């Protein structure tokens, strides 16, 4: 019995170590893991099956990646390579829905930064954002004036948070806010793991005239620590075609208008 308990403890520690390494790197080649952890390929396969069952990792074409969830914020480098084509389509669709907006708030995160890249140059725009990546993408665009919110910078997203960001944002009334989330729960709540981030997002929802949600299909059906809005607060929720039509209908029943691109 003692040997079994030690083996189980060792397996748990090894699986936790795999997840820790994934958080640092974003992805790992399965073939490298037996040597890295000094175990057999079959042992690694058992570990990965268990991690997949727990929805902590996903495996495809010999590579494992973190499963993004409310409890885990993946590295920026991973977000830039995970479902990238889907995120580009979503960003382009969002940029095409400005309508008459001349002032907009852009959220932190990789997908809103892609929206920044996709904004048109056919009109003057004023963009308010807490996102350093978005600022860097917009700073040299002659038709776009950028207002950067100050505050504490989060390493995970390079976004500004805390009192300075929310207080400044409260002074604006943007025509449109484009926001993301770490999870959209089955009961129609938008959530994020960090209360400071939630405060900025909630303020943007409150002060903006219109609101668009952008997020890949993996965001739906997940719940994080802090809620900041309801799906019915958004004019449109733009996601990828990988979100099934049946799931989209379930969210529509809660007041969401889902557009899959």
TrEMBL record:
A molecular function GO annotation: DNA binding
Domain HTH deoR-type: 11-73
SUPFAM superfamilies named in the record: NagB/RpiA/CoA transferase-like, Winged helix' DNA-binding domain
Superkingdom of origin: Bacteria
UniProt keywords, alphabetically: DNA-binding, Repressor, Transcription, Transcription regulation
InterPro entries from the UniProt entry: Carb_Metab_HTH_regulators, DeoR-like_C, DeoR_HTH, NagB/RpiA_transferase-like, Tscrpt_reg_HTH_DeoR_CS, WH-like_DNA-bd_sf, WH_DNA-bd_sf
Gene3D superfamilies (alphabetical): Winged helix-like DNA-binding domain superfamily/Winged helix DNA-binding domain (1.10.10.10)
UniProt key word Aminoacyl-tRNA synthetase: no
Function text: Repressor of the lactose catabolism operon. Galactose-6-phosphate is the inducer.
Protein known as: Lactose phosphotransferase system repressor
Organism of derivation: Mycetocola tolaasinivorans
């Amino acid at each position: 019995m003692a040997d079994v308990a030690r083996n189980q403890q060792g397996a748990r520690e090894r699986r936790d170590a795999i997840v820790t390494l994934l958080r640092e790197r974003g992805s790992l080649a399965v073939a490298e893991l037996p040597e890295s952890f000094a175990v057999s390929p079959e042992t690694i396969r058992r570990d990965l099956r268990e991690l997949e069952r727990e929805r902590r990792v996903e495996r495809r074409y010999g590579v494992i990646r973190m499963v993004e969830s409310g409890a885990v914020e993946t590295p920026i480098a991973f977000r830039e390579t995970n479902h990238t084509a889907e995120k580009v389509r979503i960003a382009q669709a969002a940029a095409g829905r400005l309508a008459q907006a001349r002032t907009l708030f852009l959220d932190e995160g990789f997908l809103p930064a892609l929206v920044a890249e996709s904004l048109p140059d056919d009109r003057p725009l004023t963009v308010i954002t807490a996102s350093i990546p978005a600022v860097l993408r917009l700073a040299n665009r002659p038709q776009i004036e950028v207002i950067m919110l100050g505050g504490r910078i989060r390493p995970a997203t390079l976004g500004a948070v805390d009192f300075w960001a929310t207080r400044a944002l409260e002074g604006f009334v943007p025509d449109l806010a484009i926001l993301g989330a770490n999870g959209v729960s089955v009961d129609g709540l938008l959530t994020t793991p960090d209360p400071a981030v939630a405060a900025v997002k909630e303020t943007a929802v409150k002060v903006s005239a219109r609101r668009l949600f952008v997020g890949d299909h993996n965001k739906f059906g997940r719940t994080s620590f802090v809620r900041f809005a309801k799906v019915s607060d958004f004019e449109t929720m733009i996601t990828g075609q990988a979100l099934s039509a049946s799931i989209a209908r379930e969210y529509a029943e809660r007041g969401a208008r889902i557009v899959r691109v």
